[in-house]
């Protein structure tokens, strides 16, 4: 019979730590709510898998590699069956260096890696016989497409105009019950940026409030886990009404998402007959982004502008770094883990929502979800049509490091891997 354990580890940094997410230096001066690492361990005979979602803006690839090796050694899990992902909270710890706006903290990274490893071990120690089922509902009032086409036909991020595409409205859940019928936990998957809070206090953003609301429904010992789907071009701001200007919007958003997840949870009562476990992972070789003429012209314009903003200067420097570096080959891990009829597909970046649609449509596995920022981070991964001036996510440098074909290459490889393990 399938066994599962879920463990929650507190990963809130010390006050005074720098916070990534914006074009300003922020040092935390308080805690709105604690940050957590949520580890889920599955076991069926000799086959095992571990999925760990973390309240951080992203995860260093090197940290994932070290933690995966340690978890594999400690628990006897195949390396390709260990997946790490980030919720992408913009009010979390210092896990990256971003210009002069935030600097990675080696001590916090060491602490975080220990939590990843210990969380997996503790989840395995809490494993019990379970039954699992899947269901989904639709939610179209929380997430919004943030790339627009203006009246003049130009594309831009935020602002006014016609949204270029559509969100993924699916709220997918994997229900995990104890074999005796008692409630244990669930994995919740939805696609939206975690950028509703701001300020200088640590917060898990709307996923934290979602978890708290689900515990108010199902009890303090209930174990909800949030996996953010591909949401590179999806955020919470409605240009025309229901948006973050409402006080405490992240709490309202979390409660609404919890209500959606609860509806799906109550429908997920058809238990999987297939409880087998399998995983596959490829470290692809993908070329880096190279600046085009309009990038170089933009950098030159900024360099000659005495009134250029810090943000403009930052991106001009990023363009010059990319120009100097030229095209190099980068290691890009893509991964799929299957638990019975359920699969998690991971890519290392802020992936455009369209790629989630391609995966869900093409997956040979019955129930499929996507995990944003899995096993590392290479910035935004847009679709071909939106690699153009005016699209913030298509800027050259740290925020977009991969060749414009990267998303399609990763999608094709993930679908190939899924065929191998279906």
In short:
By secondary structure, this protein is an alpha/beta fold.
Outline the structure in words.
The protein has helices spanning 61-75, 106-125, 205-218, 249-267, 293-303, 310-325, 353-362, 406-421, and strands at residues 3-10, 30-31, 36-44, 47-54, 82-86, 128-138, 144-145, 147-149, 155-157, 162-163, 170-178, 183-190, 201-202, 223-228, 234-235, 277-287, 329-339, 342-346, 350-351, 367-371, 380-381. The two termini are 19 Å apart. It is an alpha/beta fold and 422 residues long. The protein has two domains: 3-284 and 328-421, no CATH class; 291-325. It has an eight-stranded mixed beta sheet with strand order 5-4-3-1-6-11-12-14.
> How many individual helices?
8
Any idea what the shape is?
globular
Number of domains: 2
Number of strands: 21
Oligomer type: single chain
Percent helix range = 25-40%
Rg value = 21 Å
SSE string, helices as H and strands as E? EEEEHEHEEEEEEEEHEEHEHHEEEHEEH
- Poorly predicted runs of 5 or more residues: none
Strand content: 25-35%
Structural class: alpha/beta
Report how far the terminal alpha carbons are from each other. Answer: 19 Å
Largest sheet: 8 strands, mixed
- Strand order within the widest sheet? 5-4-3-1-6-11-12-14
């Amino acid at each position: 019979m399938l066994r599962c354990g879920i463990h929650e580890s507190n990963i809130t940094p010390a006050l005074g730590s720098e916070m990534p997410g914006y074009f300003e230096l922020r040092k935390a001066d308080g805690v709105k709510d604690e940050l957590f690492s949520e580890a889920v361990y599955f076991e069926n005979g000799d086959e095992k898998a571990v999925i760990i979602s973390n309240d951080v803006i992203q995860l260093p690839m090197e940290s994932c590699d070290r933690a995966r090796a340690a978890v594999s050694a400690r628990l006897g899990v195949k390396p390709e069956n260990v997946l790490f992902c980030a919720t992408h909270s913009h009010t979390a710890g210092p896990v990256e260096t971003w210009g002069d706006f935030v600097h990675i903290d080696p001590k916090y990274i060491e602490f975080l890696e220990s939590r990843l490893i210990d969380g997996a071990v503790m989840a395995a120690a809490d494993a019990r016989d379970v039954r699992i089922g899947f269901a989904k509902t639709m939610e179209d009032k929380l997430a919004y497409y943030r790339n627009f086409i203006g009246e003049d036909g130009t594309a831009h991020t935020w602002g006014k105009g016609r949204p270029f595409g559509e969100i993924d409205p699916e709220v997918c859940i994997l229900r995990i019950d104890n074999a005796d019928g008692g409630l244990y936990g669930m994995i919740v998957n939805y696609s939206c940026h975690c950028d509703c809070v701001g300020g200088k206090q640590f917060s898990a953003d709307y996923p934290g409030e979602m978890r708290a609301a689900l515990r108010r429904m199902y009890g303090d010992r209930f174990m909800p886990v949030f996996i953010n789907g591909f949401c590179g071009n999806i955020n919470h701001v409605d240009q025309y009404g229901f948006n973050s200007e409402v006080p405490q919007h992240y709490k309202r958003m979390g409660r609404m998402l919890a209500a959606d997840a609860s509806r799906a949870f109550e429908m997920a009562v058809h238990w999987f007959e297939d409880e087998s476990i399998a995983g596959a992972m490829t470290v692809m070789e993908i070329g880096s982004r190279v600046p085009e003429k309009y990038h170089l012209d933009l950098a030159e314009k900024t360099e000659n502008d005495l009134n250029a903003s810090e943000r403009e200067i930052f991106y001009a420097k990023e363009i010059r770094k990319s120009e100097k570096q030229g095209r190099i080959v980068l290691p890009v891990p893509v991964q799929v883990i299957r638990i019975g009829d359920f699969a998690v597909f991971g890519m290392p970046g802020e992936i455009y929502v369209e790629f989630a649609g391609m995966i869900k449509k093409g997956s040979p596995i019955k129930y499929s979800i996507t995990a944003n920022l899995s096993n590392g981070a290479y910035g935004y991964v847009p679709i071909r049509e939106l690699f153009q001036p005016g699209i913030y996510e298509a800027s050259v440098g740290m925020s977009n490091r991969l060749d414009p074909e990267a998303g399609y290459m990763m999608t094709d490889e993930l679908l190939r891997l899924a065929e191998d393990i279906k």
